[in-house]
Amino acid sequence: MSAYPIITSTDNNGRFYARFPKIELASVEDGMSTEALIEKAKMKIAELVRIGKTDDFPDRARYPKGFEKYKNDTVIWIWVDEDEEKKVRKNITIPRSLDRLVKATQLNLSAFVTDKLKERFRV
Questions:
Q1: What is the CB-side half-sphere exposure of residue 84 using CA atoms within 13 A?
Q2: CA distances from 35 to 7, 12, 27, 121 (A)
Q3: What are residue 113's DSSP bridge partners?
Q4: Which residue from 1, 9, 81, 115 has the least number of CB within 10 angstroms?
Q5: Is the pLDDT of residue 32 over 60?
Q6: Where along the chain do its domains lie?
Q7: What pTM was computed for the model?
Q8: What is the DSSP string of the chain?
Q9: What angle separates helix 34-52 from helix 106-121, to the nearest 10 degrees?
Q10: What is the largest CA-CA distance in the chain?
Q11: What angle do CA 12, 16, 20 make, to 5 degrees?
């Protein structure tokens, strides 16, 4: 059994995005608050958003379902598992400045996600 809370990328029906299959965004560490966990997840989400802007997914929308643009920021819905049975939906905003921070890791993460997609869908 994994530690709770865990944040994963889901749509509003609680399903994993096929685009980011079962990628754990953040998991709790001893003494970590839910707020700290969400902050940790923001960096991972920003990396995934950056991947979404590459040419690896030319047939996809720029932002998958669950992401929406608000002015210059990106908003994503996430589900926080507070225990084994309770999920709480939260909206978090990724500022454009945070989004830009991950440019350096774009290629490595892109390869990682592509491998995960191949594994999941046997491409």
A1: 2
A2: 12, 21, 12, 34
A3: none
A4: 1
A5: yes
A6: 6-112
A7: 0.31
A8: ---S-EEEEB-TTSPBPTTSTT-EEEE--TT--HHHHHHHHHHHHHHHHHHHTSTT-TTS-SS-TTEEEETTEEEEEEEEESSSS-EEEEEEEE-HHHHHHGGGGHHHHHHHHHHHHHHHHT-
A9: 90
A10: 42
A11: 125
Question: Model confidence at 65, in pLDDT bands (50, 70, 90)?
Answer: very low
Residue type, 58: P
Tell me what pLDDT residue 109 has: 45
Q: Are 64 and 17 in contact (CB under 8 A)?
A: yes
The single-letter code of the amino acid at 120 is R
pLDDT band, residue 45 (cuts 50/70/90): low
Highest mean pLDDT among 43-47, 62-66, 73-77, 107-111: 43-47
Q: How far is CA 25 from the centre of its chain?
A: 6
